[in-house]
Write the C-alpha cells for this entry.
Amino acid sequence: MSHATYVALSYGAALLLVGGLVLAIWRDGRARRAEIAALEAQGIRRRSAGRNEGMGA
Amino acid sequence: MSDIAASAGWWTRLANPSRFLALSNRLGPWLAGGTVLTLAVGLYLGFQAPEDYQQGSTVRIMFIHVPAAWLAMMCYTVMALSAIGSLVWRHPLADVSVRAAAPIGAVFTALALITGSLWGKPMWGTWWVWDARLTSFFVLFLMYLGLIALHRALDDPARSGRLSAILVLVGFINIPIIKFSVDWWNTLHQPASVLRVDGPTIHPSLLVPLLVMAIAFTLLFFTLHLVAMRNEILRRRVQVLRRNAARQIGESR
C-alpha cells in the first residue's frame, strides 16, 4: 500500500468513528426526548416539574 | 473568602440538573461552532503542512492519532475527577458525567489504536507490537469497555455509580503508566515529542496544525460530553416518570 492509502484509511476511520459517535449521541437524545414527550402526553409528570418550569427544564 | 463562597454557591447551584440543562442549552451551540471552526482550520493547516523528510505524507496521520490519544487519556482524567466528585461530595452530576464520558473515551481510544496501527505499518513495518505503550493503551480501551458493560449491567444508577466510581479511580493508575511507559521501558513507540521539559522537538510547520487539531478534538470532546450528559439526565427523568406512572396505577387500584 502507498503512504497516501494509509493516510486515507486513517482519516476515513476518524470520520467513521467520530461521525458514528455524533450520530449515536444525537439519536439517543432524540429518543429520550420522544419518551418524555410520550409519557407527559399520558399526563405523567415529575413531582418537581412545576417548580422547574421557570428554570427551563 | 467571598470568592470561595461564591464559587461553592455556583457549584451547588449546578448540582440541580434543570439548571445544568438550561446552562448546556446556552453553551452547546458555542462549543459545537468552535469545534467545527477549529477542526476546519486544523484540517486545512494539516494538509498544507510539508511532508516529513523521513515519514513522507504519513506524518499527516499524526494530526488525528496524537489528539485522539491525548483525548482518550484526558477523558479518563475527567472521569476520575467526576468519580471523586461522586464518592466524596455525592454531586448529582458527577455520576452522570462518568456515565456520559465512558463511550466517548472508548471511541477516542479505538481511534488512537487504529490510526496508530495504520501509522505503525509503513513506519515500523508492523501493525502491532506488545510493547509497554501500546499494551497500556490497549488496557485503557478494555477499561472503557468494562465501565460501559458495568453501566449497562446494573439498572440502579446509585449502585452502579458507586461501583464505577471506584473502578475508575483504581484504573486511573494506568494513565501515568501510559504517559511514562516510553521513558520507563524500551519501547518501539517514540518518546514524548511535544510535552517535554526542554520543549517540543517537532518543527513549527507540523507543530502548529497538531496543536490546532488538539484544540479541535478537545472542543469536540466537551461538546459531545455536554450533549451526552443531557441525554443521561433525560434517561433518568424517563425512569422517574415511569416509576411515577407505576405508582399512580398502584394507587388508583
Q: What stands out?
A: The interface with chain A takes residues 16-19, 21-22, 25, 56-58, 60-61, 64-65, 68, 103-104, 107, 110-111, 114-115, 118-119, 121-122, 220, 224, 227-228, 230-231, 234-235, 237-238, 240-242, 244-245, 248 of chain B (CB under 8 Å).
